[in-house]
From TrEMBL:
It comes from Rhizocola hellebori. InterPro entries: KFase/CYL, KFase_sf. SUPFAM superfamilies: Putative cyclase (SSF102198). This is Cyclase. Pfam families: Cyclase. GO terms for molecular function: arylformamidase activity. The lineage of its organism: Bacteria, Bacillati, Actinomycetota, Actinomycetes, Micromonosporales. One of its GO terms (biological process) is L-tryptophan catabolic process to kynurenine.
Length: 251
């Protein structure tokens, strides 16, 4: 069994949505600040982060529409600590490969036809996790491009989100900061995929995943472990998703 880490490394200054507080980590105590009688010393840090920074899971409490959350439930019923850890099958729909490219262009809308083409030969059972490969994690080092604020970012629009919801997955995930089609110059003005998935269908979203290594293997179905931090009352939390692949399919 080969494990592929699907989380982006968390560091101060990493790409993130402007709608959320930034990640910051500083060493509060350095080695030598306090030395024990036996010569031992310890270092530790202070971490400040929003729940939707880096690779993370959106709780169903994250988005409302016309004042309503999923199924009319109360906020506390839908926070991230109610997310049941997931260990089970997942499929990767490599839309970029379906177009013959490593990375989709900025601002590209992933359509139902794209998803159907990428799903050819796969069986998508209800209750599994569906990941969309756009290749966008290859741009992680370029924060200006990655955020999509100026040039946009590839992702599903309303029609693509409806296609995903119709397959009744346990969760969906992708490489971009927002699991959405972001047109050039529009930023996060409208987020219909969030409404359709979180509010209308109760499907959690995993964002800012590092899928480039997995895409390079060509593997399209695998076992996924998904277990966000159980932060009581939070609308999202960091996660380190792990894909479990046969050793024969290592990149």
């Amino acid at each position: 069994m080969h494990v592929v880490d699907l989380a982006q490394p968390m560091r101060t200054g990493m790409p993130q949505s402007p709608n959320h507080p930034p990640f910051r980590m500083v060493l509060e105590r350095r080695h030598g600040d306090m030395v024990r009688a036996d010569g031992g010393s310890a270092s530790n840090e202070v971490i400040i982060t929003g729940g939707h920074v880096g690779t993370h899971v959106d709780a169903l409490a994250h988005v409302s529409h016309d004042g309503k959350l999923f199924a009319g439930k109360d906020f506390a019923e839908l926070t991230i600590d109610t997310f049941a850890p997931y260990a089970g099958p997942a499929v990767l729909l490599d839309v970029a490969a379906a177009h013959g490219v490593a990375t989709l262009p900025a601002g590209y809308e992933v359509t139902p036809d794209d998803l159907s083409a990428a799903a050819a030969g796969l069986t998508i059972e209800p209750g599994i996790v569906i990941l969309i490969g756009t290749g966008w994690s290859r741009h992680w080092a370029d924060a200006t491009l990655f955020t999509g604020l100026h040039h946009g970012a590839p992702g599903p629009g309303a029609a693509g989100a409806a296609w995903l919801a119709a397959h009744r997955p346990a969760a969906v995930g992708g490489e971009t900061i927002a699991f959405e089609h972001l047109p050039a110059g529009r930023g996060h003005a409208l987020l219909p995929a969030h409404r359709i998935l979180l509010v209308e269908h109760g499907i959690n979203i995993v964002e800012t995943m590092k899928l480039d290594t997995l895409l390079d293997t060509g593997v399209k179905d695998f076992t996924l472990i998904l277990n966000p931090l159980p932060i009581v009352g939070a609308t999202g939390a960091p996660v380190r998703p792990l894909a479990l692949l046969p050793k024969a399919t290592t990149p």
